[in-house]
Design brief:
Two copies of one chain form a homodimer. Chain A has 336 residues and is α/β, with parallel strands linked by helices. The first copy, chain A, folds into three domains: 6-49, lambda repressor-like DNA-binding domains (434 Repressor (Amino-terminal Domain)), CATH 1.10.260; 61-160 and 296-324, Rossmann fold (3-Layer(aba) Sandwich), CATH 3.40.50; 162-293, Rossmann fold (3-Layer(aba) Sandwich). Chain A has helices at 6-13, 17-25, 32-45, 51-58, 74-87, 103-115, 131-138, 162-175, 191-206, 223-236, 250-262, 296-312, and strands at residues 63-68, 93-98, 120-123, 143-146, 156-160, 181-185, 216-218, 244-247, 272-276, 290-293, 320-323, 326-328. In chain A, the strands form two sheets. Chain A has a six-stranded parallel sheet, sandwiched between helices. The longest helix of chain A has 17 residues, at 296-312. Chain A is elongated. Strand 2 of chain A pairs antiparallel with strand 2 (93-98) of chain B. The first copy, chain A, binds a DNA duplex (30 and 30 nucleotides) through residues 5-7, 15-19, 21-22, 24-25, 27-31, 34, 49-59.
DNA sequence: ATAAACATAGAAAAGGTTTACTATAGAATT
DNA sequence: AATTCTATAGTAAACCTTTTCTATGTTTAT
């Protein structure tokens, strides 16, 4: 029942444990016959080194924590997959954590990951306050911020150009003749929520269109909140519906669409919609949505690369990478 | 840059390291004034215990490995979420691994998880051979098999009643008058593939309907393989299309639908379809699919519970849990 | 007043590795 | 032939905890 240790291997092969370790790590000359003896003992005993002990000594756990709002959100899953594609070949494993957009839970998770001594953390924060993150970095744990940033934090950051993308897609709506535009957004305490809202407002402003407060909806960046917000809005504004909805995130677009259909409205005949971020299985959802297509997988890959760099080398230079997402025109916007 | 250790806390609080440890673990009487001194030192130094060292001594890592074909498949994500919902409150973290249906990669991942000394493994295997899994269990690592089973393996197993569910939904098609039925399935080396196919065949047989080989499609349980298989089938059988398709998994249903639409056919007017497993965002996909609705989240929860039990207690009794999935009637099957 | 029980604290071993240091034998250099 | 190198192997410390065992002072029982 108990696991075989390096001692037993050493005994069986008639060598010291140092020699076994050297055969395993291949970082010191060992004569060929001894090496073979050791390898034989290893395979006979079916020895598998204790990674915990290794980590204790080497101060490397070969684990990377990834902390996002919700691991079931395809956007974050894509990021995770991107990270994994880069780090798994180097023998790293990923620990997934969901904050559910709760800053307290985020802090708890970060502490836990720190206790586990993960080699790096990839984080899409829901916090406005970076003090614990700063601490982590100062104490030598690389933290790579993805999707969302915190101002004034000395950390590598990979985000999308939210302001301009939101500006552009709002402009697109305006050029199609829309003036009564509703926005379904996440919280403004999150950088993506804030920036997308700023871009949206700027586009209205530049076109001399007034922001209509009753069309400004907010919630957590998820399907349910968007569904409820849009449903209520439609019910309350039956007589004065917006002609278009800007959903500030993929899940919110889905929630909004479900609400629209449930209320017996058509897209885009009765109401147009655009999304920030791709839907799940977009090929099966009609009409094809006009949206900002994001770079989740690439962001993940970049985050993975930076994580590996930081783990192995220089830790005190930081960069911010801004990805420029595409505007993809679909059929969800009507000319008015 | 270096992390604070228990030694420094002890020094600062003027006590021994044993006392600090006792304050942390609260498993031995410590006088109130000493406890306060220690807690103060901890917070002043911002000490966070080294989980690696703890794990080495306590032989508990508080990590559970979860190994599935593809972490981006919503079905497996639901399982993972179910596991997480149960174990995270007990302080456990999840390490996610994707095998991409590659048994060699699975073995590598299992070895890695074993080296990491995870406390338990939740596994949806793509392997037919359970020898390494058996080894793991014998050496004291609980392995909970989910979704897919391996015959003759002494492990806790939680699966769906694939045979009967497949039988029932095929029967449903037959009762709707379908005789030319195509099946898009995963590999038969995987228990779910095999059992669903058996159920499918039995239903045909019981109704005196012949299996038509050219309508039997196979691939990995993913969107792409299903898409390609169905696309080719439609092209080749233009003159003799099946009237219905049984997709043996959620992703395959999606791939099949995309192919059907791309080939200019309608659902269910030109071709009916049923799915084993729920689609992503089913509310947005028209027509509403008739399908076998699975219990992924519940399976995950059960797996989490069993994992915790096994970690803490009895290890040598094993059970197989069989969940009975629902048949949900939608609008994707035409009466013929 | 003495013995027994108790509450609290520390010393030290243990957990399974890696690695700096030391040792030895034979090869190469002078 | 004496000296220096080199290749290879072992010893023991270190990584940071937890926990057993021991010690001490105090309380309770007799």
């Amino acid at each position: 029942m108990d696991k075989v240790t390096i001692k037993e291997v050493a005994k069986k092969a008639n060598v010291s444990i140092a020699t076994v370790s050297r055969v395993l790590n291949n970082n010191y000359p060992v004569s060929e016959d001894v090496r073979l003896k050791v390898l034989e003992a290893i395979s006979e005993l079916n020895y598998q080194p204790n990674g915990v002990a290794r980590s204790l000594k080497s101060k490397r756990t070969h684990m990377i924590g990834i902390v996002v709002a919700d691991i079931t959100n395809p956007y974050f899953m894509q990021i995770a997959k991107g990270v994994e594609s880069v780090v798994s070949s180097k023998g790293y494993n990923l620990i997934f954590c969901s904050t559910n957009e709760n800053p307290t839970k985020e802090l708890k998770l970060l502490r836990l990951l720190n206790e586990k001594r993960v080699d790096a953390i990839v984080l899409a924060t829901c916090d406005k306050d970076g003090s614990y993150i700063k601490q982590l970095i100062e104490h030598g744990t690389p933290v790579i911020m993805v999707d969302r940033k915190i101002h004034g934090l000395n950390a590598d950051t990979i985000v999308e150009d939210n302001f301009n993308a939101a500006y552009n897609i709002t402009n697109y709506l305006i050029n199609k003749g829309h003036k009564k535009i509703s926005v379904v957004n996440g919280l403004l305490s999150i950088s993506t929520g804030k920036e997308r809202f700023e871009g949206f407002k700027k586009a209205l402003e530049d076109n001399g269109i007034l922001l209509i407060e009753k069309y400004v909806l907010k919630g957590n960046f998820n399907r349910e909140d968007a569904y409820n917000a849009v449903k209520n809005m439609i019910k309350e504004q039956r007589e004065d519906l917006p002609t278009a909805i800007f959903a500030a995130n993929n899940l919110m677009a889905e929630g909004a669409m479900i609400a629209i259909y449930e209320q017996g409205l058509r897209i885009p005949e009765d109401i147009s919609i655009v999304s920030f971020g791709d839907l799940s299985v977009p090929q099966l959802i009609k009409p094809k949505l006009t949206l900002i297509s994001q770079n989740a997988y690439v962001i993940g890959q970049k985050a993975g690369e930076i994580a590996l760099e930081k783990i192995n080398g220089e830790k005190d230079n930081y960069r911010e990478y801004v990805m420029v997402p595409d505007l993809r025109v679909g059929e969800s916007v009507k000319q008015v």
